[in-house]
What does this fold into?
Amino acid sequence: MCIRDSHRAYVDAGADIIETNTFGANRIKLADYQLDEKAKEINIAAARLARKAIGEKGFVCGSIGPLGKMLDPLGEVTFDQAYQAFAEQARALEEGGADVVCIETISDLQEMRAAVIAVKNETRLPVIASLTYDDGQKTVYGTPPEAAAATLEALGADVIAANCSTGPEGILNVAKRYAAVTSRPVMVMPNAGMPELVGNNAVYKMTPAKFASFVPKYLALGVSIIGGCCGTNPKHIREVKAEVFKYKKVESRKLKVENRNGRF
It folds into this structure.
């Protein structure tokens, strides 16, 4: 299946937002494949492919993943180098027609800081800032959701998010903590549970129905955007969309009853 056909499968499943195939398309990461000089070209092309797939009826989200190397003082990448790499990728995604950028699967708050500042300074695109958390509801660097939300809000992130991590239940707990401390919209994009090792392959066994069963819980918290990360496919998204519609119908009926009873 080609990239555009993959995008179309998600659009056909009901996705309102599709991500570009650019998670590792920053200059620093691409250098591992001798493609660093093609970073701009790759990101522009990816955004245009996504736009062709979804047309004008949905949103193209430019995916910006981690650099793949640690920032100093723990690693060799300076803050300025990180800023420049993220800025280049964000500008290219904007040029290709992205509507929004999602900086995702970030564990280091300093790396996220460089990325958010770069996108805000160098483009006009809204920013979804998405960290990944472990079983203890902290990043691997020890940042809890409350500290992350406060920092990201101060940096100007438009949406505070969590993705990947430990599956829908683990991210539900993170979302609760986000919702308690921020007025910004919250996004969740969990894995299809935790993978199991089958032979030499990591296999995600959570069914689309089980994955989507968490949707009402997310919506009850006020979560604005729900997506899928590792192990999910168009079937998971189709089930998520169905649960969203069910929830909206139930809430609409409740509102009508409350209005009839004179509560509003």
